[in-house]
Design brief:
The structure is a homodimer. The first copy, chain A, is α/β, with parallel strands linked by helices. Chain A has 2 domains: 108 residues, Lyase, Ornithine Decarboxylase, Chain A, domain 1; 202 residues, TIM Barrel. Chain A has 9 helices and 15 strands. In chain A, the strands form 2 sheets. In chain A, strands 1, 9, 10, 11, 12, 13, 14 and 15 form an 8-stranded mixed beta sheet that branches. In chain A, strands 2-3-4-5-6-7-8 form a 7-stranded parallel beta sheet, covered by helices on one side. In chain A, helix 4 packs across helix 5 and helix 6 crosses helix 7. The longest helix of chain A has 22 residues. In chain A, 57% of the residues are buried. The model of chain A has no long low-confidence stretch (mean pLDDT 97). Chains A and B meet through helix 5 and strand 9 of A and helix 5 and strand 9 of B.
Chain lengths: 335, 335
């Protein structure tokens, strides 16, 4: 089967670009120095490729991501890099058969984890982004609370999400300052793990013992604009379904229900995207260029990989001649 | 089972608001004067409620929406209100056992429909929105082309999508002008059907024989801001998972993978949404107000119903005492 045989919209993964991305990261962060974040791709089939590249610890943002990884036998060491107080989901994680650690940042999250039978936690520390995480100065007391509740405290985590696409000139110093907060917390918490970072700070963050990154595998235009060396492996195949007879625009069959829109419009190389509707993208030709015709296939680059993948049931892995090498189920969707 | 028993994030449908919305529209557009658009809710269970309210014709934006409706026995008269050139999907529609009409706006779409065994079409006419549709002056020739290809031409459709949330003072005249283009096309095309409109023009558009509306059933803040009388039936239940100890913000467990973001942030009544991340929304209290505590449940109002529902597997229908009356599968997702 070939790309031309696919119905659209459909996600494509360029096998060569994907492999290059995985190899580049594995060279920088081999084995357990990377804890791949499955939230970016939500696919156990893709995760299995990362295992083959030497990574056997993973993190996720939802219970379903971790339960799916455990069920697929990819659960040597799974981290819920998020707070969770739902007893049913915490109990499912505790009973899934894999080694599961969860993040805690409050007495309430510690109590919920302990009550559900979770055995290991990381203390989540606020390092500058207004989201989860306790203040560095409170981390030691929280670790103590967790230990008294019978939990093993493996260390700390902190996500410098506000710095992922910071200008290069400022990034190093800003990441160092954020990680100083995490290391301050680690001094009082103890444990082997200092977990943090992401695709945008993969080369900058020298302070974590393990990097939480997932987007690098597939990439998007938001991360590419930050000058990262990873290649666009993910694209959205679409079909032109209508062309304005006066040549002002054309319309393809992939819209905002096939794309994450929080980082803006997708990119259609060679054309100018005018706007996305539910199931359409309207685009214009650059000056002097010709519009495609009805039935032509185009490939869009998503602005944000995570919410784009979450709309799809599968990703098709394509080789250099547009043959379909594999189809990866997006089997970790939902919560 | 009650709302408190649900894991989050979860979509809730207020049964009373939903029924009121359905009744209000059915009073304005009874029976076949409304062709409910399933793209807004992607659920055969919800569609069955509309059948019970007297509507037995439907439209959709994707082949899967229509094939699912046909399989559920809700296929008295289904319209693909979109252009499609995929032979496999057109053949599936032609063979699904239901009466299926498709929109055409070019020689290529006519040829694709005829080749696949589609029997009935509407000519899609551009009425002012830069998307699909042929010019009004070309509609007659296109109808002739379709009839020569053996297709029955049932009439015309045109979507004044650019006017859905136009200011009230301008809407009536603008919709009339758009529909003048559609009626001009209809004069040369013939057939019984003049299809168009949507939730935003349900009371304004007096020119169509059938209105294509779906969002009115569930509603969102974008449509509500336009002053429509439909109630918020849809909300997103979430759980507070982290609260800043200094009281500057709190974080819940529903983010941009549980919400369509193209119309902006969701609304959290009583609080100020600061930003959404993949699986979180960070929000602040209004001056002097108190933040909730970890474990508290809140309900967010989505900015755009269609792409929000498309992220979820189900919607829970709730009664006046927060009891769960029914759970509707979102079974028409994908393409």
């Amino acid at each position: 089967m070939r790309v031309d045989d696919l119905s659209t919209p459909a996600l494509l993964v360029d096998a060569d670009a994907f492999s290059a991305n995985v190899a580049r990261m594995a060279a920088q962060r081999p084995g357990g120095m990377l804890r791949p974040h499955v939230k970016a791709f939500k696919s156990t089939a893709l995760a299995a490729e990362l295992v083959a590249a030497g990574h056997d610890t993973f993190c996720g943002a939802t219970a379903r991501e971790l339960l799916g990884m455990a069920a697929a036998g990819l659960g040597d060491d799974l981290l819920l890099a998020n707070e969770l107080v739902d007893p049913r989901r915490l109990q499912a994680l505790a009973a899934c058969g894999a080694r599961v650690s969860v993040a805690v940042d409050s007495a309430a999250t510690v109590a919920a984890a302990a009550a559900a039978g979770i055995r290991e936690v990381l203390v989540d520390v606020a390092v500058g982004m207004p989201r989860c995480g306790c203040p560095p100065g409170a981390a030691g007391r929280l670790a103590e609370l967790a230990r008294r509740a019978g939990l093993e405290v493996r260390g700390v985590m902190g996500y410098e999400g506000h710095l992922m696409t910071a200008p290069a000139a400022e990034k190093a110093a800003a990441v160092e300052a954020a990680m100083a907060r995490l290391l301050e917390a680690h001094d009082s918490v103890g444990g082997d793990i200092v977990s943090g970072g992401g695709t945008g700070t993969y080369a900058t963050n020298q302070w974590v013992t393990e990097l939480q990154a997932g987007s690098y595998t597939l990439m998007d235009t938001h991360y590419a604009a930050a000058g990262l060396p990873f290649r666009h492996a993910l694209s959205l195949l679409c079909t032109v379904i209508s062309v304005d007879p006066r040549g002002r625009w054309a319309v393809c069959d992939a819209g905002l229900k096939a794309l994450g829109m929080d980082h803006g419009d997708p990119t259609l190389t060679g054309f100018e995207v005018l706007f996305c509707s539910d199931e359409h993208t309207t685009f214009a030709a650059h000056d002097g260029a010709r519009l495609p015709k009805v039935g032509d296939r185009l490939r869009m680059l998503p602005a944000h990989v995570d919410p784009t993948v979450a709309y799809h049931e599968s990703m098709h892995v394509i080789g250099p001649d547009d043959d379909i090498i594999d189809t990866w189920a997006v089997d970790l969707r939902g919560w």
